Amino acid sequence: MDPPVATADAGGMTSSLTQTSRTVRSWWPLAKHYAEMVIAMFAGMVVLGMLRSAAGLTVEFADHPGTSYVLMATDMAIGMAAWMRFRGHTWAMTAEMCAAMYVPAVFLPLVWAKVMSSTAFMVVAHTVMMVAMFVVLVRRRS
């Protein structure tokens, strides 16, 4: 174990570099897992999207943004679930993380009512999805 190294900050208070190092190390597994989830989502979206396309099972986003989003979220959730199960996560944890993919669907009525454009929805959806995943990760941090 590293001995604490005290340094003075601008306010004259002392802080521990060791404590900062421990904090960074304690968050590293979470950051690594988050990156793994994003990569697994992307892989699922690309691979399953290509398979669906080859089978003629796609819909145009411009024509059907809701259906297109749900299919994309499902592709991402399957990729993420496969990776999580491979890494030994429980079904409950996997389901909770996959549910984060569908949280942005609450904004679809705004698209259907022409209050939000399809493009704006997709930007909001991806942002909300990433935040929802982060909330699940932090909740299950241990």
Q: How many beta-strand runs?
A: 2
Q: How do the helices and strands follow one another from N- to C-terminus?
A: EEHHHHH
Distance between the termini: 22 Å
The low-confidence runs, each spanning 5 or more residues with pLDDT under 50, are none
Range of strand content: under 5%
Domain count = 1
Strand line-up in the sheet with most strands? 1-2
Q: In DSSP terms, counting alpha (H) and pi (I) runs of 4 or more, how many helices? A: 5
- Coarse structural class: mainly alpha
The main β sheet shows up as: 2 strands, antiparallel
Quote the average pLDDT.
Answer: 87
What does the overall shape look like?
globular
- Rg computed from alpha carbons, rounded to a whole number of angstroms: 20 Å
Roughly how much helix do the residues carry, as a percent range? 55-70%
Short description:
With 142 residues, this protein is mainly α. 68% of the residues lie in helices and 4% in strands. It has five helices and two strands, in the order ββααααα.
Descriptive keywords:
mainly alpha; 4% strand; 142 residues
What does this entry look like structurally?
With 142 residues, the chain is mainly alpha-helical. It is built from 5 helices and 2 strands. The chain has helices at 17-54, 65-86, 91-99, 108-112, 118-139, and strands at residues 6-8, 14-16. Strands 1-2 form a two-stranded antiparallel sheet. Strand 1 and strand 2 form a beta hairpin. Helix 1 (17-54) crosses helix 2 and helix 2 packs antiparallel against helix 3. The longest helix has 38 residues, at 17-54. The radius of gyration is 20 Å and the shape is globular.
